[in-house]
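In this section we turn from sequence analysis to structure. A common task in structural bioinformatics is to predict how a protein folds when a small molecule is present, because the ligand can shape the pocket around it. The inputs are simple: the amino acid sequence and a SMILES string for the ligand, here adenosine-5'-triphosphate. Study the lines below before reading on.
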Amino acid sequence: MARRSDRTPAIPDLGIEQDEAPQVQVAVSDVHVRYQTPSSDSADRAAQTRGQRIRNRLLGQQPMATVRALKGVSLVARAGDAIGIVGLNGSGKSTLLRIVAGLERPARGFVMAKSMPVLLGVNAAMVPDLSGRENIRLGCLAMGMTPEQVADAIEDVVEVSGIGKAVHHPMKTYSSGMAARLKFAIAAASKPEVLLIDEALATGDAAFKERSEERMQQLRENAGCVFLVSHAAKTVEETCSRAIWLHQGRVVMDGPAYDVAQKYRWWAWNLAKDETTRAASLLEDAIREGVDTVVDIQQPGTTNAPRHAIGTRRMRRK
Ligand SMILES: Nc1ncnc2c1ncn2[C@@H]1O[C@H](COP(=O)(O)OP(=O)(O)OP(=O)(O)O)[C@@H](O)[C@H]1O
């Protein structure tokens, strides 16, 4: 592998016939994510123990509620995959990307990647007072490129971003679409094997969409894989080869982008029209049609295992 970080160990024996299928880039096994958040819900207040109630009253704090953002998600991404992730607000899409990127640690389950995934979020940190060009330099260096590689790549990044002369202006003057385009171009410049994109393409215009799709295609051809989170099932259908439909932290379907996007769109349309009975039956059908992914991977040794990517419970050992 070209690069490997201490956060992302090599995938050991995958138990999968590597000759017959493209190489596995990312494996997510039975990942559960829970968040603790303050809640003003009377049910959460009632569920407190006496000790918690006294403590919260003394400290002036609200009771805590547990949000289960992911409930046993498993998937395998292979070289050449462009995987769109669709689902309603709060279904766990961004959480899944953060977990694959290694920015969060699951409560249970684990993630392994062949090389360090690069997460491109629309909120990726950049320096607002510096020009687009200076942010390209910083962003590329932060992704591990050498100054020589940055110098070679910079014109290409400017071209892919398509922001023209604005590249010399401070980033704080950019529209959200311009900033998103620049971030996409920077993230793609390091030619990561695993690129994770959160909604970025939705903000670009038609010309940018074409350029970014071209760049995604190049990454896939170079044995990489791309994950794209989008609310727009149409974007996923047009840009991706495969799609995963998440609902309430679970995988409903994982299959060809067209099939999954069509089913998701029809379900969401019925839901929006308050056709709840039909929507419920469409969801049931989709779950029944979906195939459960079981990732059979031996855990890496604890010495080079990424702490963030391995849950605290149910760690399987060889
Ligand atoms: N830091 C956090 N603390 C508490 N709850 C969180 C946190 N981050 C996410 N959640 C909750 O986890 C669930 C999944 O959130 P996530 O952002 O992954 O959904 P999403 O599908 O990306 O939503 P959207 O389409 O609105 O961006 C939601 O219920 C959300 O409120």
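Residues 1-18, 301-308, 312-318 have pLDDT under 50 and may be disordered. As an exercise, try to locate the residues that line the adenosine-5'-triphosphate site and compare them with your own expectations.
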